[in-house]
Amino acid sequence: MGADPFCSREKIEHQIIYESRHFYALYDIRPVVPGHCLILPKRHILDMLEFSDEETADFQAIAKKVIPVLIEQYSKEEKSYDFTSQIGPYSGRTVNHLHFHVLPRSKKDEYQKRNVHIYLDIENNRSSLLLNIREEVGRLRKALGYSPAQK
Q1: What predicted TM-score, i.e. pTM, was given to this entire model?
Q2: How far apart are CA 135 and CA 141, in angstroms?
Q3: Structural domain contains residue 111
Q4: I want to staple 31 with a disulfide (CB 3.0 to 4.6 A). Which of 2, 18, 42, 129 is the partner?
Q5: What's the half-sphere exposure (Cβ side, CA atoms, 13 Å) at 144?
Q6: Residue 151 resides in a domain
Q7: Residue numbers of the domain that contains 57
Q8: 132 in any annotated domain
Q9: With the C-alpha atoms ordered 63, 52, 84, 139, is the resulting torsion angle positive or negative?
């Protein structure tokens, strides 16, 4: 697995759509569907069971702030999303830092049309999602009322 990019704010700054005291919300650099974001602790941990009580409360608060905006921006009337994390050595996790995926879903997304598991064939369909991450990050920052200078 290489170095942990989530432990370097400089490496993820361009992806941050929102942050709280203990967490970042990032636009995924390899989105599987439009609006695919991550929520991750600033502190390097591998399992949510390591959260302090304060981090647990902050995790709930950032999820309740970010997820409704992602639904509004990408899922709208369907109000559908996947919320998942791969925890542990056999989970398929590719970055050795706890992170949660939030994937707004709609009946029009590529995986609904194909009716296949969301992680199958990702590489073949990702190029259209990578077109303008900077634009997506800007749009979501605006929708969340977030400016990186405020932290």
Answers
A1: 0.79
A2: 10
A3: yes
A4: 129
A5: 29
A6: no
A7: 5-146
A8: yes
A9: positive
Please count the residues of the chain: 151
The domain that holds 86 is classified in CATH as 3.30.428.10
In the numeric block, which tokens belong to residue 26?
Answer: 């990032």
- pLDDT digit of tens for each residue in the chain (151 aa)? 458 999 999 999 999 999 999 999 999 999 988 999 999 999 999 999 999 999 999 999 999 999 999 999 998 878 899 999 999 989 988 899 999 999 999 887 776 655 455 555 555 566 666 667 888 899 899 999 999 876 5
Is 128 exposed, middle or buried, given 0-12, 13-18 or 19+ CB atoms closer than 10 A?
Answer: exposed
On whether the CB atoms of residues 30 and 39 are closer than 8 A, the answer is: no
Q: Is residue 61 part of a domain?
A: yes
Domain count, the chain: 1
